[in-house]
Design brief:
By secondary structure, this protein is α/β, with parallel strands linked by helices. It has 12 helices and 8 strands. It binds 3-hydroxy-3-methylglutaryl-coenzyme A and magnesium ion. Pfam families: HMGL-like (PF00682).
Length: 296
């Protein structure tokens, strides 16, 4: 695996901020995303076009997306739940629309106010409109490794959602460990099943780090052929509609492992750390990642 090229998708501006009680001012978000754009990262999920009442921290989505400086070679994505959200996202000229739903019924209901069955046509309409507008589309599946309301989630439920998303023309599926409960053995078992049906190039992993397993889970996934991982600067993140969800895998800790093992990402670690320190200063709270615990 040394010398493998890994794509890191920075989701800090969306997943990282969505669960924060402090509203990071729009100008600070923009300055931070501009810094992220200069790290060498190839994908940034910059905001979310969900209902602003559901996620007040990102109610400035259009202003943020219109305010940033677009760097060449960077894809700017955003979370988009439905056609109304896509209208706002297109107005803001995002490059990639990330639709989302859960593999478990209760989390889907709590998070997007619909049953799984009723969500399919909504995501299909959204994905197809995004593709028609020349955008790329990725699809998140939440609660792949367990649900905060239902506990275990059957792999058949994950397969069914993944098949539906791929049939809609969605290019990449991001498998979410929403509450950060997976361990490497479970990741291996789930991927063994999924990789028999779906090519590794179509899959990304989205690990939250509640039990500190995210890096170990990443390593197992890399060994099984997955090359795309979502992470957030500082280890920020969580889903307000998933009790117990904690931060995402921290981008700087992920880079430490990947680069240390000889894998390449195109990202300059020192610049990523600078971006973490910048936001930490603005938010006035200590970030939880390992590297942010080390003194300057
Ligand atoms: P709803 O209330 O069922 O929506 O919410 P609706 O379609 O019935 O519409 C109600 C009103 O909201 C209408 O306005 C719509 O226009 C408006 P009215 O006609 O009454 O004046 N509306 C909107 N306004 C702005 N933007 C929109 C939008 N949609 C409808 N996009 C909805 C359904 C999906 C919108 C809501 O439940 C919602 O916003 N949920 C988002 C929750 C969320 O953001 N959760 C966190 C992200 S997911 C996550 O973190 C997991 C992930 O990281 C992966 C992992 O870790 O597993 C991705
Ligand atoms: Mg998440």
């Amino acid at each position: 695996i040394s010398s493998r090229k890994i794509t890191v998708k920075e989701v800090g501006p969306r997943d990282g901020l969505q669960n924060e009680s402090v509203f990071v001012p729009t100008a600070d978000k923009i300055a931070w995303i501009n810094q992220l754009s200069r790290t060498g990262v190839s994908y940034i999920e910059i905001t979310s076009f969900v209902h602003p009442k559901w996620i007040p921290a990102l109610s400035d989505a259009v202003e943020v997306a219109q305010g940033i400086e677009r760097a060449p070679g960077v894809t700017y994505g955003a979370l988009v739940p439905n056609a109304r959200g896509l209208e706002r996202a297109l107005l803001a000229n995002i490059d990639d629309a990330a639709v989302f739903m859960s593999a478990s019924e209760t989390h889907n209901q709590k998070n997007i106010n619909k049953s799984i069955e009723d969500t399919f046509p909504i995501l299909k309409e959204t994905a197809q409109a995004a593709l028609a507008a020349q955008k790329t589309v990725r699809g998140y599946i939440s609660t792949v490794f367990g649900c905060p309301y239902e506990g275990n989630v059957k792999i058949d439920a994950v397969i069914r959602v993944a098949e539906n998303l791929l049939e809609m023309g969605i290019q990449e599926i991001s498998l979410g460990d929403t509450i950060g409960i997976a361990h490497p053995r479970q990741v291996q078992e789930v991927l063994e099943v999924l990789l028999k049906r779906f090519p590794a190039e179509r899959l990304a992993m989205h690990f939250h780090n509640t039990y500190g397993m995210a890096l170990a889970n990443t390593l197992v996934s890399v060994e099984m052929g997955i090359s795309t991982f979502d992470s957030a600067v500082g280890g920020l993140g969580g889903c307000p509609y998933a009790p117990g969800a904690s931060g995402n895998m921290a981008t700087e800790d992920l880079l430490y492992m990947l680069h240390g093992m000889g894998m390449t990402t195109g990202i300059e670690s020192t610049k990523m750390l600078e971006a973490a320190r910048f936001l930490q200063g603005k938010m006035g709270k200590k970030f939880s990642s390992h590297q942010m615990q080390i003194g300057e």
